[in-house]
Design a protein that fits this description.
It is built from 13 helices and three strands, in the order αααααααβββαααααα. With 275 residues, the chain is mostly helical. A three-stranded antiparallel β-sheet has the order 1-2-3, with no helix packed on it. α6 packs across α10.
Length: 275
Amino acid sequence: MSDALISFYEYLSVVKALNTQSIKSYIKDIKQLEEYYQPRDLLSLDNMDILKFLAQFENKRTLNRKLSSINNFFNFAKRESLTKSKISLKTSKVPRNLPKYLSTDEILSGLELIDKTKTNGLRDYALILFLYASGCRVSEALNVQREDIIDNWLKIRFAKGEKERLVPLAPIAIKALEEYLKEADISSTYIWLNKNGNRLSRITAYNITKKYLNVSPHTLRHSFASALIIGGADLKVVQELLGHSSLVTTQIYTHIESQELKETINKYHPLAEEI
């Protein structure tokens, strides 16, 4: 590495106190830029040089990450008087992808594949319904204790930012949960357990939803929100149920509503067909 890059590494490690992975990402991006222009001095580059380097990356997220690293490096170099050049380029706007979600019919079809004559089958069935009925994060679900469910209401205590929220649970999810708990005869205060009686891990929860629905547990959270929005629920209510601190985060689901309306028009309106 060049002296400037070594100094940047020390700055990230000591002054900024970033974690190891973040430091590696920064250094990797700058080393790639340095190697691209060898044997030129890294500090001799200008905005046009940077743009030429970035032009090889089509993925906007990759491009923006590298641009962030480059801007941070050259801001550091100028502040430390290592260069007089000012490199400052704006990031490219990254389109927000619609979250993947399943319809209720798709989820129910997957549930039919579960063998409910076995305890683990009852657990898997109840867990999938629980995730879809509550919209909670998988980490929140796995931390649920018996006392957190009162009169068909779920109290989520382990939300992001340590904020509590209450979510009503559908009767079908409650029934499935009761059947599982009765069969499993669980003594633990926690609900979702493996065959050894230990709390279920995130990877096991992932394997369960992947096996029957071919999606991650988080997709069930998206499916919960999408079903509410398509059904006409108020956005602020959905925000509260999801535990989003900002309405902006929840607004991505309005795109799903728009997409659903468009598909309905295309399917049913007589003028949607070419004459």
